[in-house]
């Protein structure tokens, strides 16, 4: 059976975990996009409590860098990569807030729905729009976990989106260049 | 881009590091001003992010030290306390921008965009400048004559204003130097100075050089390109030989001067521009207007203030000064040692008419120096100059001028062939040949 080898070699597994009150549907949508666009296996786990030391008492926001450090140290499951999903406001010390955060070539990405749930004008978008944005952020952060850099092409998911408007204008698409880098990264995980 | 983050807080250094790493930049970090300066001696950096509050050397002190030693390196100041005063202070010392911690991600993107644009602009500017410097020559303006003192006073007077200046003077009088002096003394001194010789560039090329073009505007236009009117970015634009500009270009430029906008060739979108215009002409523009070659409305636009540059023959008091200056300069450029010009040679230089003005004087000194074997330039070294009074008033042919000149020298040396040949800078055989060719005889002048 010439195909046995390939069947035996499992696709790398990505684990998506909702934290706190984050709706499980969001985790499911993200998992579906990861397996669809990146051709990886993706699973979702039930909700987990937010690591208590992630809350910054002064800013009343959650420190994304600390969350990532905690989860990297936790030696969770057999996951190749972990996407942690939050509905609280995340920040890193430099910025007022972040939509998502991942270390270049790291193992854990943190994503927040908090700022994705508000239009630039303050009104609330329909929930499918929020899920779409979350999926885009997740694919972008997965790109970083797979060692991709920001991309200058505004029609590529690896372009750095600093506003929800920018994010909405970015299609579900990796440019040719980034797609090639993804293939290379996935060929030798 | 090579970026360095200077902050005493580890967590800030790390956040920056990760962010810039993700954007494909080369990032270094330093925990103190001293460490930053140390790293700067080891490698060049394009951009520094510097925290104001640090123990030891603070961010402002580091900024000042960096600007002094590495003026090309851009510095963005970071402050956690929202102290606008210190940020403004930093901008005065030369910071490119400042950010108040924590900032929105789009603020950082904006800063990076600004930096990238700045880099692009300065490289574009250097490219264009390099191209122009090949055409133009640099020097200082030199003069102590009354005529030049009046010009210097005019320069000082007009420099501060934004008014268009027209420099009128013969070829070789140093109009570009005057234009540079106006720029250097003006509030725009730190911005670009761009000089274009309109007479040296074909009309179609001049249009695209000045206005820029869109990709595909014509064959060979493979990229969008900014024209000098845009690139000059607040500086001074110097158009030499403005009398050579075609009537169509005069209309286009007139529009630019009125609207302060530019539309690239092949584009419809006007871009706003800012510059101070200095023009120069060696032609009589009034006569050009009468002849219908130059538009009167354009003339009044560019001639708000006119400075007349005197020809060298009207400022003979400057000749010695200029000659010494060129002598020193050329000695510096070549290995040749020539210390001075003899009084007799100077007399000859002062008697000469200098139709080519300062430029001709410089060429004459250079030519004399190259041929001279002594450390003093003497009369004979300038034998190639047309004798005074025999200047090209009636436009005699070159051969006639040479004939007269040789005859003069022969008469002067009482037909001593050896001495005359030496004075002419040619050997005796050549002189004999020339005597034969021109059928020269002692006293033959009377028969002319
Ligand atoms: Zn990113
Ligand atoms: Zn891309």
TrEMBL record, chain A:
Transmembrane segments: none annotated. Pfam families: Peptidase_M54 (PF07998). InterPro entries: MetalloPept_cat_dom_sf, Pept_M54_archaemetzincn, Pept_M54_archaemetzncn_arc/bac. SUPFAM superfamilies: Metalloproteases ('zincins'), catalytic domain. Keywords: Hydrolase, Metal-binding, Metalloprotease, Protease, Zinc. One of its GO terms (molecular function) is zinc ion binding. Its cofactor is Zn(2+). GO terms for biological process: proteolysis. It comes from the Bacteria. PANTHER family: ARCHAEMETZINCIN (PTHR15910), ARCHAEMETZINCIN-2 (PTHR15910:SF1). This is Peptidase M54. It comes from Desulfosarcina ovata subsp. ovata. The lineage of its organism: Bacteria, Pseudomonadati, Thermodesulfobacteriota, Desulfobacteria, Desulfobacterales.
TrEMBL record, chain B:
Residues 141-370 form the Sigma-54 factor interaction domain. One of its GO terms (cellular component) is cytoplasm. SMART domains: AAA, REC. Residues 2-116 form the Response regulatory domain. GO terms for molecular function: ATP binding; sequence-specific DNA binding. It is found in: Cytoplasm. This is DNA-binding response regulator. Gene3D superfamilies: 1.10.8.60, 3.40.50.2300, Homeodomain-like (1.10.10.60), P-loop containing nucleotide triphosphate hydrolases (3.40.50.300). It holds the Pfam family Sigma54_activat. One of its GO terms (biological process) is regulation of DNA-templated transcription. The keyword Secreted does not apply. Its main location: cytoplasm. The modification 4-aspartylphosphate is found at residue 51. Keywords: Activator, ATP-binding, Cytoplasm, DNA-binding, Nucleotide-binding, Phosphoprotein, Transcription, Transcription regulation, Two-component regulatory system. CDD domains: AAA, REC_YesN-like.
């Amino acid at each position: 059976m010439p195909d046995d080898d390939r069947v035996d070699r499992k696709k790398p597994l990505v684990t998506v975990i909702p934290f706190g009150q984050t709706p499980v549907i969001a985790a499911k949508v993200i998992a579906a996009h990861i397996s669809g666009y990146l051709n990886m296996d993706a699973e979702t786990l039930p909700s987990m409590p937010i690591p208590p030391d992630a809350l910054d008492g002064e800013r009343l926001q959650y420190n994304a860098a600390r969350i990532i450090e905690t989860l990297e140290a936790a030696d969770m499951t057999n996951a190749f990569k972990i996407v942690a999903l939050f509905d609280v406001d995340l920040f890193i010390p430099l910025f007022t807030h972040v939509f998502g955060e991942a270390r270049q070539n790291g193992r854990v990405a943190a994503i927040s729905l908090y700022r994705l749930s508000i239009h630039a004008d303050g009104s609330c978008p329909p929930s499918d729009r929020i899920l779409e944005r979350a999926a885009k952020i997740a694919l972008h952060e997965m790109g970083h976990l797979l060692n991709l850099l920001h991309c200058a092409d505004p029609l590529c998911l690896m372009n750095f989106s600093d506003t929800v408007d920018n994010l909405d204008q970015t299609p579900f698409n990796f440019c040719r260049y980034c797609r090639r880098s993804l293939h290379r990264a996935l060929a030798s995980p | 881009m090579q970026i360095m983050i200077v902050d005493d807080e580890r967590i800030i250094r790390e956040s920056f590091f990760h962010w810039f790493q993700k954007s494909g930049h080369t990032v270094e970090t330093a925990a103190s001003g001293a460490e930053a300066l140390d790293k700067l001696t080891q490698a060049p950096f394009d951009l520094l992010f510097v925290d104001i509050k640090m123990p030891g050397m603070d961010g402002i002190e580091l900024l000042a030290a960096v600007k002094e030693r590495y003026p090309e390196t851009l510095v963005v100041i970071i402050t956690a306390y929202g102290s606008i005063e210190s940020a403004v202070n930093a901008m005065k010392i030369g910071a490119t921008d400042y950010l108040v911690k924590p900032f929105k991600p789009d603020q950082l993107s904006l800063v990076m965009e600004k930096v990238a644009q700045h880099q692009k602009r300065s490289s574009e500017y250097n490219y264009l400048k390099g191209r122009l410097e090949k055409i133009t020559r640099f020097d200082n303006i030199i003069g102590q004559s009354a005529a030049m003192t009046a010009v210097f006073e005019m320069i000082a007077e007009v420099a501060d204003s934004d008014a268009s200046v027209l420099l009128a003077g013969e070829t070789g009088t140093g109009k570009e130097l005057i234009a540079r002096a106006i720029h250097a003394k003006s509030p725009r001194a730190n911005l670009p100075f761009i000089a274009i010789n309109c007479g040296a560039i074909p009309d179609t090329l001049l249009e695209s050089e000045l206005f820029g073009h869109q990709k595909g505007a014509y064959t060979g236009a493979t990229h969008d390109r900014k024209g000098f009117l845009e690139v000059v970015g607040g500086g001074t634009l110097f158009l030499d030989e403005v009398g050579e500009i075609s009537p169509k270009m005069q209309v286009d430029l007139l529009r630019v001067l009125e609207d302060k906008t530019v539309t690239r060739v092949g584009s419809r979108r006007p871009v706003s521009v800012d510059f101070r215009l200095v023009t120069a002409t060696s032609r009589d523009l009034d006569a050009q207007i009468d002849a219908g070659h130059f538009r009167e409305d354009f003339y009044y636009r560019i001639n708000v203030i006119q400075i007349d540059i005197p020809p060298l023959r009207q400022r003979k008091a400057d000749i010695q000064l200029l000659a010494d200056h060129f002598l020193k300069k050329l000695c510096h450029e070549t290995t040749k040692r020539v210390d001075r010009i003899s009084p007799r040679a100077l007399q000859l230089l002062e008697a000469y008419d200098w139709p080519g003005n300062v430029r001709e004087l410089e060429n004459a000194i250079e030519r004399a120096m190259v041929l001279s074997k002594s450390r003093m330039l003497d009369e004979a070294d300038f034998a190639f100059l047309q004798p005074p009074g025999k200047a090209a008033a009636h436009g005699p042919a070159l051969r006639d001028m040479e004939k007269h000149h040789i005859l003069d020298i022969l008469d002067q040396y009482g037909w001593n062939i050896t001495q005359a040949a030496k004075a002419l800078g040619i050997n005796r055989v050549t002189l004999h040949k020339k005597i034969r060719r021109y059928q020269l005889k002692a006293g033959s002048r009377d028969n002319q």
